[in-house]
Design brief:
With 129 residues, the chain is mostly helical. It is built from five helices and no strands. The protein starts with 10 loop residues before the first helix and ends in a 12-residue tail after the last helix.
């Protein structure tokens, strides 16, 4: 995430932040309700998140980021104990506030950037206007 400022995010930065936000919401939903979001729910959540920040991405990109976030969130949940997973989900959700600092969230954000670098979503053009 980035410290609150007046500069708009880069297209890549927007995608990384969206991937992080989707993974955070997926983990939070899993630990709170015992269910994973579907890819369609993730794509819809992505559209809502983008609209709040006055940004947009094509549906295909939102779906792809939703799928990547699902894989990432499930890997996190499979690797951690329930307690550690709850803590990770909490830290990631808190880190959606740009004024919240978390080393764990920074590590997860770096992993999102790495995963996005491996994804065709990162090779798409500018966000839709």
């Amino acid at each position: 995430m980035r410290v609150r400022d007046d500069t708009p995010p880069t297209p890549r930065g927007l995608r990384v932040a969206l991937l992080f936000a989707l993974a955070a919401h997926r983990l939070s939903g899993y630990y709170e309700h015992g269910q994973w979001l579907t890819d369609a729910q993730g794509a819809s959540l992505a559209a809502d998140w983008l609209a709040r920040s006055k940004n947009a991405l094509r549906l295909t990109e939102r779906r792809e980021l939703s799928a990547i976030s699902d894989q990432f969130a499930r890997e996190i949940a499979n690797q951690l104990s329930r307690e550690a997973g709850l803590y990770t989900a909490h830290e990631m959700m808190e880190a959606l506030d740009p004024n919240y600092h978390s080393e764990l969230a920074e590590t997860m954000l770096a992993e999102c950037a790495r995963r996005l670098g491996e994804s065709p979503a990162d090779r798409h053009g500018q966000p839709e206007k």
